[in-house]
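note to self — DONT lose this again. spent like an hour looking for the file last time. sequence + predicted structure for the chain T wanted, 175 res
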Amino acid sequence: MHIIVDGYNLIRQSDTFRQSERKSLEEGRNALIRSLAGYRKLRGHRITVVFDGWVGGSPLEERDSAGGVEIIYSRLGEKADEVIKRLLAKGDEEILVVTSDREIAVFATRRGKSAIASSAFDERLERGAAGSLPAESNGKDDTDEDDDRPGMKRKGPSRRLSKQQRAALARIRKL
């Protein structure tokens, strides 16, 4: 799975990264990249983090890599959102976008990709750092609603999630 992270969006949704960012913008980015590199090592997913460079960046898009995490800085005049949309549009693989930006999340789901809120992914990063991530899912997820009526089994296709929703949940379970 390929995880694409809206860098500054995640930094600003996380208490840990926000504290690092208060020291300096570079320190916030480095803290995020270190955390993502640890997560990548633990889970083995391909990770790309995209940062805005549209105000004070280079006239060309810049790419770098650290700890196995691909880093993209958007070019001057281009927002990270546009870079993420471009990656989603040309990506053939299984992609999960980490963002709290509704526009990007909707764009991803319309193209058959999945999106997870930055705050939810931040919790997974913290659990990964603490070493409490489950090895693999047992087929059930916290978002399943099987237990809303104790003792009652869900029956029939009318209560089943759509194929697209089931595929999105499967991608999120892989985190």
